[in-house]
Amino acid sequence: MSADTPDVVAELDDLKVHFPTPAGTVRAVDGVSLAVRRGETLGLVGESGSGKSTAGLALLRLVDPTAGRVRVAGADVTLWSRRRLRATRRHVAMVFQDPQASLDPRRTVGDSIAEPLIVHRLAASTAARRARVAELLDLVGLRADTAGRYPHELSGGQRQRVGVARALAGEPDLIVLDEPIASLDLSVQAQIMNLLRHLQRDLGLTYLFIAHDLAAVEHMSDRIAVMYLGRIVETGPPERIYRHPAHPYTAALLSAVPVADPRVERERRRIVLTGDIPSPVDPPSGCRFRTRCPQARPACAETDPALAEVGPGHDAACLFPLDGERDGGVGEGATTRADAAGTA
Amino acid sequence: MSHTTVLSVDDLTVTVGTRRGPVRAVAGVSWQVRPGETFALVGESGSGKSMTLLAATGLAPRAATVTGRVRLLDTELTALPDDRRRKVRGRHVGFVFQDPMTSLNPVLPVGRQVTEAAEEHLGLTRRAARDRAVELLELVGIPSAARRVDAYPHQFSGGMRQRVAIAMALACEPDLLIADEPTTALDVTTQAQIIELVADLQARLGTAVVWVTHDLGVVAGIADTVAVMYGGRIVEQGPVDAVFDAPTHPYTRALLAARPDPSRRGEDLVAIPGSPPSPLDLPPGCAFWPRCPVRADPRCEHELPPLTTVGDGHTVRTFYRGEAG
C-alpha cells in the first residue's frame, strides 16, 4: 500500500507519536501503518491508552509525528507547516465525541457550520453561505431554522448532527469520527449511526470510525483495525475479526463485551484479562500484550511480532495466532479455542 | 437475623424545586432487593434512575422533596431524622460511583480512606484499621496490597481506583451495595473484571446489590431483577429473563431492538426518533408517547397507563397489549 495507489485517501506509514512527560516518553503511537481507502469505513478499536485517538489526530496533523509519514490525498504532509496544513484540513475533517465541547457555545449553529466555508473560501457570498448552511442542516436531518440556535438549546443527538454538518462543510475526502456516539443516549446512538451510513452512501464519504463500542464498530465498518498499546495488533474484515479473531487480545476484547441476553451471559466463557494495560512509557519487551496474554510463551518476550497474514485480508501481530472460531459476532455467544494456539 | 428484603422502596416520589418551578424527577416508583440479589435500574439520561437511588438512600439534594416509604432491613429510613439516617446508612450501605474520584480523597493514602468509615462505624483502632485495609485491598484484587496501602489514588489506574472504591464500600460489611454506573467510565476488559469482582464478592458475602446502568448488556450479565425507567417512572420491571425474553413496554422493546445485530449488518438500525424527555417537560400521558412507534391506544397521549402484571413478578406500565417478545 502506498500513496500511489489511487484508492487510498489517507495513510499512516510506520507512524510514531511520542510525548515527553516527566515520567518518561509516552509512546502513544509506536509504529502504526494504516491506509484508509476511498468510500470505506475503517473501524479503529482499542481501549483507553491504545493510541487510537492519537492515530486519528495524526491524520489531521493535529499532533506532530515523531517518526514515520502521514499522507493525505496523495501528498506527504508529515513536515508541512501549520499554514500549509490549513488546506489539508479541508481534506480531512473530524467529528468529536462530545459535541458540547467541540462547538463554540457562544456562536450560533449556523456560524459554526459556516466557519469551514469561510476558512476554505467555499462560498462566494453571504447568501451562498447561508444557502449552503441550510443545505448541510437538511443533510443531517435538522431544520433550516436550527442555524439561528445555540448549542445549549439542542439535545445531545442534535448537537452531534451539527458536528457532522460542520465536518461535511469542507467536502472532505475523509472524516475521522472519534467516538461519535459514545456520549449519546442509547436510543439516540442508532439515529446517528443510521445518519452516518446514509450520508456515506449518498455522498460517497470515507470514514475512519474510532470507537470502543465493538458492536457499533462491527455494524459500521468494512474493515477493522484493533490497537493495543500503540500498535495495530490485528486487522481484517469484520466477519473475520469478530468470528475468527487471530490475536489473543482481540479474542479477549470481544469476550469482554456484554451481550443483551441473560442466557448467553450466563453460559458464556469470558476471557478475563488480569492486570491493567501496561504503561506506554515502558511497554513490555517482545509482544506488548504478553504480560496479560493467557497464551504467552517464553518466545513472546523476545520477539516483537510484526503483522502477518493469517487469512485473506486478515493480518495479526502474534507469534502463535489463534485458529479457533467464535460462535458469532458481538451480539452472539463467544467462545474461543484458546488452546488451539498450542498447536500452531 | 434474616430479612426477606434488604431495601424496600414504596411509592417513592421526588420533586425538585427549580427556577422554572417544581419538577417531578421521580414519580411513584416501588421496588425491593433481597439478600444476595442484584437489582438493576436501567434508563437513559433524565430517566430518574440516579435520583431514585439518591432518594432511596436519603441522599437526595436539599432542594428535593421526597415522599413515599423506604425501609432498610428493619428500619423505616424515611421516618428517621437526618443524623440517625446517616448512621444507619453508613453502617449498612456501601456506595460505588461512576467516577471513583467522587469517593476518593486525592491527598490521602488509599488505605486510610478504605477504612475511614469502618473506624467510625465499627470503632476500629488505627492499627486494626490498617490491617483491615490491607485485607480489603486484597479482597478486591489489588496486587501487593500491603505495599500499596500507603499509595495515593493518582498512583492507581482507573480500574484499580474503582477496586479501591469498592473496597471502601465494603469496609463496613454492608448488607447493601449501591453501584451507580460503576463501570461506565471503564474499558470493556476492565468492566469485565469489575463485574466479576462484584459477583464474586456478592456470592461470598451475600450482599444485596443495586446497580444503575444504561447498558443492557451489563444488565443481562448481572441482574436478577431489572427495572426500566423512563421519564421518572418505572415502565417495566421483572425477572431479568422475563424482561429480555418478553419485553412488553414499547420503550423496552425499542431499546432492545436499537442495538446493532451482527446478523443484520448492512441494514438500518431500528432507531427511536427524538430524544429522551427532560423532567422539565413531561407529556401528560405516557412519557414515551411522543417517540412511541406503537401508540397502541388513544388514551396513551393524555392518560397515565396503569401498572399491569403480565407475568410472575413482571409488571409494565402501558396500554399496549400486543404480542410480547
From TrEMBL, chain A:
UniProt cross-references to InterPro entries, sorted A to Z: AAA+_ATPase, ABC_transp_ATP-bind, ABC_transporter-like_ATP-bd, ABC_transporter-like_CS, Oligopep_ABC_C, P-loop_NTPase
Pfam families for this protein: ABC_tran, oligo_HPY
Coiled coil (UniProt feature): none
Swiss-Prot/TrEMBL keywords: ATP-binding, Nucleotide-binding, Transport
Compositional bias annotation for Low complexity: 333-344
Domain of life the protein comes from: Bacteria
Gene3D superfamilies in alphabetical order: P-loop containing nucleotide triphosphate hydrolases
Domain ABC transporter as annotated: residue spans: 10-254
SUPFAM superfamilies attached to this UniProt entry: P-loop containing nucleoside triphosphate hydrolases
Molecular function per GO: ATP binding
Annotated transmembrane regions: none
Region (Disordered) location: 325-344
Family classification: Belongs to the ABC transporter superfamily.
NCBIfam families: oligo_HPY
PANTHER family tied to this protein: D,D-DIPEPTIDE TRANSPORT ATP-BINDING PROTEIN DDPF-RELATED (PTHR43776:SF7), TRANSPORT ATP-BINDING PROTEIN (PTHR43776)
Name under which the protein is recorded: Peptide/nickel transport system ATP-binding protein
TrEMBL record, chain B:
Every ABC transporter domain range: 7-256
GO cellular component terms attached to this protein's record: plasma membrane
UniProt cross-references to PROSITE patterns, sorted A to Z: ABC_TRANSPORTER_1, ABC_TRANSPORTER_2
Gene3D superfamilies for this protein: P-loop containing nucleotide triphosphate hydrolases (3.40.50.300)
Listed GO biological process terms: peptide transport
Source organism, top-level taxon: Bacteria
Subcellular localization(s) per the UniProt record: Cell membrane
Topology versus the membrane: Peripheral membrane protein
Keyword Membrane part of the UniProt annotation: yes
Keyword Aminoacyl-tRNA synthetase: no
Principal place of residence: membrane
GO molecular function, one term: ATP binding
Pfam families hit by this protein: ABC_tran, oligo_HPY
Keywords annotated in UniProt: ATP-binding, Cell membrane, Membrane, Nucleotide-binding, Transport
Family as reported in the entry's similarity comment: Belongs to the ABC transporter superfamily.
PANTHER family per record: DIPEPTIDE TRANSPORT ATP-BINDING PROTEIN DPPD (PTHR43297:SF2), OLIGOPEPTIDE TRANSPORT ATP-BINDING PROTEIN APPD (PTHR43297)
Protein name: ABC transporter ATP-binding protein
Organism the protein comes from: Micromonospora tulbaghiae
Origin organism lineage: Bacteria, Bacillati, Actinomycetota, Actinomycetes, Micromonosporales
